[in-house]
Amino acid sequence: SRVFRPTTTTVEVGAGVVIGGPGFVVAAGPCAVESAGQLDSVARAVADGGAAVLRGGAFKPRSSPYSFQGLEEHGLRLLEEQRDRTGLPVVTEVLEPAWIERVAKSADILQIGARNMQNYPLLREAGRSGLPVLLKRGLSATVEEWLLAAEYVLLEGNPNVILCERGIRSYEPSTRFTLDLSAIPVVKRVSHLPVIVDPSHSGGRADLVRPLALAAAAAGADGLLVDVHTDPTSARCDADQALTAPEFAELVEALERVLYAV
Ligand code: PEP
Hints:
Elements: E1 11-14, E2 17-19, E3 25-29, H1 36-49, E4 53-55, H2 73-86, E5 90-93, H3 100-106, E6 109-112, H4 120-129, E7 133-136, H5 143-154, E8 161-165, H6 183-190, E9 195-197, H7 199-203, H8 206-218, E10 223-227, H9 245-261
Parallel strand pairs: 3-4, 3-10, 4-5, 5-6, 6-7, 7-8, 8-9, 9-10
Antiparallel strand pairs: 1-2
Helix pairs in contact: 1-2, 1-9, 4-5, 8-9
Bound molecules: phosphoenolpyruvate.
């Protein structure tokens, strides 16, 4: 909490990329790594569009076991290739403690997904890795439960935790989840950890990404995690929420205007 540490923790995730500092950091890329060609084109698009971090899931925790589950090891190798080519640090999800060592070789940030926010063995092992950990808020987690989950990582001596608000379950069906914008100032008041926002998984719709992202920036978030695809209609995972490359570049420009204004 801020009682323990009054200043915001800054997390360095690659050469010159700092989350929680004065800069606003945008991580972007495909929801799932699908092929070498797909990741190459999306990585080029997000690097050109202003992303500082490349996102991409090699392991996909899908609601249905019949949906595409990710390229796994092959996906990790493709992420490494794009990290080498673009110079962008990589954030990717890890689902099991046994995979942490392997995923850590391909990633600069370990993502703990919403469905695993309270998977304590996973949190402990991620903490022991020493890598920055991006901790998504659970689908129905209170802010207190989310912050206590972060403590599992911190207790392993790993101070590099980035919180990610990604929407919570509500009674409202018109969006996939309800983005809890108020969690940003609430968490920032009580916690020293940086907070970023995922406007893609919260709304579940591409047309909502821009307004939610701009609102998150205005509300004080330290960055964003955004789904981008160069051909959203062919995406094998969460196609409805992916921005196209031009939409992403336009969003980054609009973010600059909002951040300047606040
Ligand atoms: C993701 O970011 O790829 C993802 C699955 O998100 P969440 O855990 O928030 O559903």
